[in-house]
Amino acid sequence: MWDRNQMAARAAKELQDGWYVNLGIGIPTLVSNYIPEGVDVTLQSENGMLGMGPFPTEDAIDADLINAGKQTITELDRTSYFGSEQSFAMIRGGKIAMAILGAMEVAENGDLANWMIPKKLVKGMGGAMDLVAGVGRVVVVMDHTNKKGESKLLKSCTLPLTGQGVVDMVITNLGVFNVVEGGLELIELADGVTDEEIRAVTEATIVN
Amino acid sequence: MNKIYGSAKEALDGLLKDDMFIAAGGFGLCGIPELLLEAIKESGVKDLTFASNNAGVDDFGIGILLQTKQVRKMISSYVGENAEFMRQYLSGELELEFNPQGTLAERMRAGGAGIPGFYTKTGVGTVIADGKEHKDFDGETYILERGIVADLAIVKAWKADEQGNLIYRKTARNFNPAAATCGKICIAEVEEIVPTGSLDPDLIHTPGIYVHRVIKGDHEKRIEQRTVSAA
């Protein structure tokens, strides 16, 4: 089984040299720690920045410089700033090669739910709906099961959708799936996880 | 013509009325027009509708207007981190229209640019698309979203000149340029006002044509998530 960092490291292998990429909050943020040697990617923060740097040291904290998770960050030599309207123009316009984000549920047809639980959790979709509709490739990184041990990879989502048929790949603590015609294709097992184990906790159709 | 006002209260003079629609810049607590929001609270104006990406936190930003129940409706993409907001929404006291973040930004941009509506893929197949016109272009389905024109836009910038030309700083720019354009009247609060001619014309983010009133003030610039790396 993979921990959060191992999941992030696996997701980082999907990055390609020269890409502009948007990383979501949580485990996806950790992906930036594992960008492979020789792969030069530029991170977008949808509040209006390309070229997001690491967290600042205490003396470099700047209230005017935050990421989409509202955390203080730093800029790089390559950094550019812009308004939200331009930030989402580049997202909607397909200029961002990949988004890596978390999820509550993913369905076998690529439907994604990650923004609300009716009557329980009302936070909002932020930029997630724009990202999944606009970027080249959507990779979800999430735990395979919920707190009750139930599959988060479903035949169809039960929660309100963030996007319809938008997910290309799912990386969980148990393995990696591509979303393909007819369901999910299991392409990799996490360390120490057997084929039998992963299938036993996956509700979605596995095509291979 | 003088665009420079002495205080947030003076800049708002004659512009506020109950039931009005205000577009506000800012993302989280970053780049929010905190002084104007405070002055709006003090005015006691009520039943406000705000188009703003977030609603601040309980005691800062738009949150202070929620505490006093001056807000009737929010148009926002994300309202987490605000307990009072959640309470008022779940109890039905406050109306909330969720907009995807990019849709909200583009609605402001479009409204300010005289574009009454636009088609976007964002939200197709979700509750956001309910009741909206769907149209196919080149084999893809899009939904119609409306441009926003607000009674008043309030924004925060770094520097202004006496013409109302604005420059923002780093990610405090966020929604401010789009919000500035979509108000029938726009007030900007800034950290510094410089004489006309002292900003590089090539580097102005919001041209003064959009900005009607400007105030300078001291900003708290509160940080929501103070994250640091080891030195």
TrEMBL record, chain A:
Pfam families: CoA_trans. This is CoA transferase subunit B. Gene3D superfamilies: Glutaconate Coenzyme A-transferase. The lineage of its organism: Bacteria, Pseudomonadati, Pseudomonadota, Alphaproteobacteria, Rhodobacterales. Coiled coil: none annotated. The keyword Transferase applies. One of its GO terms (molecular function) is CoA-transferase activity. Belongs to the 3-oxoacid CoA-transferase subunit B family. Keywords: Transferase. InterPro entries: 3-oxoacid_CoA-transf_B, CoA_trans_fam_I, NagB/RpiA_transferase-like.
From TrEMBL, chain B:
One of its GO terms (molecular function) is CoA-transferase activity. It holds the Pfam family CoA_trans. Gene3D superfamilies: Glutaconate Coenzyme A-transferase. InterPro entries: 3-oxoacid_CoA-transf_A, CoA_trans_fam_I, NagB/RpiA_transferase-like. Signal peptide: none annotated. Keywords: Transferase. NCBIfam families: pcaI_scoA_fam. PANTHER family: ACETATE COA-TRANSFERASE SUBUNIT ALPHA, KETOACID-COENZYME A TRANSFERASE. This is CoA transferase subunit A. It comes from Halocynthiibacter styelae.
